[in-house]
Amino acid sequence: MNSNPDWDKLLELGKKKELYSILEENEHFLVVYKRNGIAVQATSQAQIDLEKILSEKYKKPIFVLNRIDQPVTGLVIFGKTKKFAEAFTEKIKERDITKTYLAIVSGSPEEGRVKLTHFIKKLHNRAMTADEPMEGYKESVLYYEKKQVFDNYCLLKVDLVTGRYHQIRAQLATMEMPIKGDLKYGSRRPNLDRSICLLSYRLEFTDPLTGVLHTYKAPLPDNDVLWSLVDESVL
Fold first, then answer.
1. Is 35 domain-assigned?
2. What are the strands, taking DSSP E only, across 70-160?
3. What is the three-class DSSP state of 73?
4. Which of 100, 131, 196, 207 has its CA 20 to 30 A from that of 215?
5. What is the C-alpha R_g of the chain?
6. What is the tally of structural domains in the chain?
7. What is the pLDDT of residues 25-62, one digit of tens each?
8. pLDDT tens digits, residue range 52-92?
């Protein structure tokens, strides 16, 4: 047992239900519902994150297979075995994983299923976008559909094709549709808990080791009144 005080703090945080909950677990992977406010995988060894919490919980390395930003809520998958992690990573490279997000945005989204294509480069913890190919920029593609309208915001369903740094946040902001609470990308005011209204909502994949199709759906957050107004029947 690690006696470092930081690990004691880690364990205490890991016991708090508001940080995360495990939706499914088997011998090969974990599907976790992450609350906003904790990183999936921190860049600093000193920062507590889900990877460290889960690795300590299971007393072995846990493999991060997808990431969502610290202020984002929703589904994250972790590998419990190296064999699964390597096979799942190949499916990601082949774009054989379906990832759907919900976003509450301001602005004026178009009707119908809309494709957005930009080119993104990470620069100083921010995603820079371009409309045309440029050196160092990677093609970034998503589709969105407007699903519900509130007084000053709209609910979008976003299907992510590529998985670039801050992709959804940056692409929607580029189209003058910043996510509610996302000050970094143009929201006018923060959310009270520093979250942004972006949810990793649905994850679907075929298990590369067993061939079984898995589909997971996240519960809607309870930290913003607009989430409580979402009509799930439209999703």
1. yes
2. 73-79, 98-105, 113-122, 127-130, 138-149, 154-160
3. strand
4. 196
5. 18
6. 1
7. 999 999 999 999 999 998 777 788 999 999 999 999 99
8. 999 999 999 999 999 999 999 999 999 999 999 999 999 99
Q: What residue type is 140 in one-letter code?
A: S
Does any domain span residue 226? Answer: no
Rounded Cα distance, 106 and 150, in Å: 10
How many angstroms separate the Cα of 177 from the Cα of each of 26, 165, 182? 39, 18, 11
Backbone angles phi, psi at 202, to 5 degrees: -140, 140
Angle at 70 between CA 32 and CA 81, to 5 degrees: 35
For 52, left (φ over 0), alpha (ψ -120 to 50), or beta? Answer: alpha
For residue 150, the one-letter residue type is F
Task: Give the Cα separation of 157 and 217 in Å (integer).
Answer: 13
- In this structure, what is the dihedral angle of CA atoms 215, 226, 66, 75, given to the nearest 10 degrees? -40
Give the structural domain span for 45: 5-218
Angstrom distance (rounded) from CA 180 to CA 226: 10
3-state secondary structure of 48: coil
CA 184 to chain centre: 16
The rounded distance, in Å, linking the Cα atoms of 68 and 45 is 18
Q: Name the band, by pLDDT with cuts 50, 70 and 90, for residue 187.
A: very high
Asked if residue 228 belongs to a domain, the reply is: no
